[in-house]
Amino acid sequence: MATSMDKLFVREYERKNGDILRINQCEIGDVGCVVWDAALVLCSFLESAYFLELCDGTVYGKRAIELGAGTGIVGIQAACQGLDCIITDLPDFVQLMSLNIETNQKLCNGDIKASALQWGKDDHLYHSPDVLLLADCIYYEESIEPLVSTISKLSNNDTLVLCCYEERVTDNKPVLQSRFFELIKKNFDVQKVPLEKQDPFYHSDDIHIMIFKKRR
Ligand SMILES: C[S@@+](CC[C@H](N)C(=O)[O-])C[C@H]1O[C@@H](n2cnc3c(N)ncnc32)[C@H](O)[C@@H]1O
């Protein structure tokens, strides 16, 4: 079972305007059932002036999809900012994501829904969004190629892909990360968001926010 909804505990995240997101996490379940640090870094980046600049000055009416959303915190934050967002993960996570949408619905200014999207399999069910969001998804050996395939299929030339990940040095993680970027760079220009353009509090030397733009 990927998530057990029997025992939940709440992670609070304070938005810059003082609103508090209340994110339910599961005591028992796979890695996605808690909020990861890369998700917090990406959440805070979505409130930055630089993100607004990347969105040509407005986020209202823009469509976002979050991949591997886990609890859904990043997509919920995007919807609070005014984007219309579909948060996705494996089918077992839809219940947790839906609960978190319901819990935070009043703070959302854009439309938001939770949906299943298995990388490499379900891409055809979705249209290309304006913004594609990923936090800590470069993690699974068996999913590197399906993940790159989904990012490629969901992106058009105008899609802004924001991929935030924690650089890990243990086990096979460095190899996975190299393989992921090797594949991504075949079709995308890749750029790193400098630390000074990130949130002064929610940032870290080993958590990177990468921007991918599909080459024409
Ligand atoms: C490390 S967790 C990160 C969760 C969340 N983005 C965060 O940062 O808090 C990675 C997520 O990717 C999802 N995932 C793994 N393999 C997947 C696949 N093949 N298709 C879709 N989602 C997948 C997991 O279920 C999990 O929620």
Automatic annotation (TrEMBL):
Pfam family name, one: Methyltransf_16
GO-annotated cellular components: cytosol; protein-containing complex
SUPFAM superfamilies: S-adenosyl-L-methionine-dependent methyltransferases
Membrane-spanning segments: none
PANTHER family per the UniProt record, alphabetical: HEPATOCELLULAR CARCINOMA-ASSOCIATED ANTIGEN, PROTEIN N-LYSINE METHYLTRANSFERASE METTL21D
Protein name as it appears in the record: Protein-lysine methyltransferase METTL21D
Organism: Paralvinella palmiformis
The organism's taxonomic lineage, starting at the top: Eukaryota, Metazoa, Spiralia, Lophotrochozoa, Annelida
